[in-house]
Design a protein that fits this description.
By secondary structure, the chain is α+β, with helices and mostly antiparallel strands. It contains 14 helices and 22 strands.
């Protein structure tokens, strides 16, 4: 047999499927037993079936570099990640707590800024925020919700503790791949879904649509919801198309919309103009409205901010929500939760050094070969320095950047991230993973996906899981039959 769990090496990391004793964890028995019973030929056939399904379903992502763009098949490993429901219930409560506090924080920043007046959050940090939008001051979105959709990245250390690594509150992406990963796995291993109590993820588009409709300014009418995309050259265009299709909404570009003299948004159709109530926008703030932001933008809609300010259209996520999508702001989330909710944080942050703090900065410089250094507002793994894997030259260049702009950098210890068995040739090896669940907030209801998008580093020893940097993905199972060990 191809897979012998007794020979699988999980140490010194926390493996999410196999314990250090070489036995499956309580929620993974059925899966581990099934995989151990597959022959070389069956494993090869399963992987080929997954690759065929991905091509047939057209699941792609786009990589940009050196002036070109390449569409690639979405990489899915056929060994799923499994989490027990009892543990997931706690994680879910921690995510809801976090998003509730962050929405209160964002709303406060664009109004009274009481958290700054009370000395909990530094004024100078906000002053140098690249995602703070003065154009949003004084605006209160429906129910005070700014980040309707949040993707918070989770990691687990060698002791099994789950941490929040970062929050994504601007235009978080990846949820379509979470759903499609499940579709692929159901094609490859249908019998596993018949014999295991795996919580579903397919209802996300309907949950998203219901949340979007709840934001409509016209409560008595059936709302017109659209997905606003930058177009086919955006790296997440597959997701924009997928979600629009699944929700039964129109996929539009900026040129398809117009703001009339009544400060309402209309969609151009062959039958004339049709009023739009809710825009799920996948365009960054600065390109959203040439009247309010970048005057050269051809991606957005002139007058959109006027329509939003007057309450004639809902924008999801709200412009300006990215002020909390900042890795330096992230380091204050425990204090933010305590300030607004009077609660201790449930899901801890990874210990973080703020380079804007003199003593922290000195520590980072002296220990840069041990730490992970991150710029405040980059995404996709760009701008990252992983100290133990870096050269002296890279470290010195990073130190120069930190000294030039200390507010823009944080550093964190290099965690021994948890692993999940991953198919390599015809055997399994542990590979590091993270997890991005998605949280939907309407102000009246908050929902968390049952699991999320698990990203996996496909290179042995690598901590880089982003698909744009060579990572892959796994289906994530929340199973209702045991608790994590």
């Amino acid at each position: 047999m191809s897979i012998n769990w007794q020979k699988y090496k999980s140490q010194p990391f926390y493996d999410e499927l196999i314990s250090q004793t070489g036995k499956p964890r309580s929620h993974s028995h059925n899966l581990a037993g099934y995989l151990a019973g597959l022959s070389d030929e069956e494993l090869t056939s399963a992987r080929a079936a997954a690759e065929f399904a991905i091509k047939e379903m057209g699941i792609t992502f786009t990589v940009y570099g050196e002036g070109s763009s390449i569409d690639r098949a979405w990489p899915v490993d056929i060994v799923p990640r499994v989490i027990g429901k009892k543990e997931w219930d706690f994680i879910e409560s921690g995510l809801k707590q976090r998003v509730q506090a962050l929405n209160l924080f964002i709303n406060d920043l664009y109004h009274k800024q009481q958290i700054i007046k009370d000395g909990v959050f530094p004024k100078e940090l906000l002053a140098k925020s690249v995602n703070y939008r003065p154009q949003c001051e004084g605006i209160t979105p429906p129910n005070g919700i700014w980040a309707h959709i949040c993707g918070s990245d989770l990691v687990r250390d060698d002791k099994g503790t789950v941490y929040v690594l970062e929050d994504n509150l601007r235009v978080p992406s990846g949820v379509s791949y979470m759903i499609e990963n499940r579709s692929v796995m159901k094609r490859v291993f249908p019998e596993l879904f018949e014999n295991n109590d795996i919580l579903p993820v397919h209802d996300y588009p309907s949950q998203l649509f219901d949340m979007l409709c709840a934001m409509s300014p016209r409560k008595d009418d059936k709302p017109e919801v659209v997905v606003l995309t930058p177009g086919i050259y955006n790296s997440a265009y597959f997701e924009h198309c997928y979600l629009a299709q699944e929700m039964g909404c129109e996929l539009v570009e900026g040129r398809d919309l117009v703001v009339n003299n009544d400060d309402c948004v209309y969609m151009k159709t062959i039958y004339g103009l049709r009023r739009v109530d809710v825009i799920y926008r996948r365009i960054d703030d600065l390109f959203l409205d040439p009247e309010a932001f970048n005057p050269d933008s051809t991606l957005g809609v002139a007058g959109l901010m006027r329509a939003w300010r007057k309450g004639n259209v809902a924008l999801v996520n709200a412009p300006g929500a990215g002020v909390a999508d900042d890795k330096v702001v992230y380091s204050f989330v425990p204090e933010i939760i305590k300030y607004y909710l009077d609660e201790d944080i449930k899901l801890p942050n990874v210990p973080t050094y703020k380079c804007m703090d003199k003593s922290d900065r000195q520590y980072v410089i002296e220990h840069i070969d041990e730490l992970v250094v991150k710029p405040a507002n980059e995404s996709g793994g760009y701008g990252l320095l992983i100290g133990p894997n870096s050269t002296k030259k890279e470290q010195q260049e990073c130190i120069k950047r930190i000294k030039a702009d200390p507010r823009n950098y944080i550093a964190q210890p290099t965690l021994k991230l948890s692993t999940v068995p991953t198919l390599v040739d015809n055997h399994v090896e542990g590979r590091h993973v993270d997890l991005r669940p998605f949280i939907l907030s309407s102000g009246q209801n908050t929902q968390v996906t049952t699991g999320g998008l698990t990203r996996v580093a496909l290179v042995k020893g690598s901590l880089v899981v982003n698909s744009s940097q060579g990572g892959g993905s796994k289906d994530t199972w929340i199973v209702d039959d045991g608790e994590a060990q």
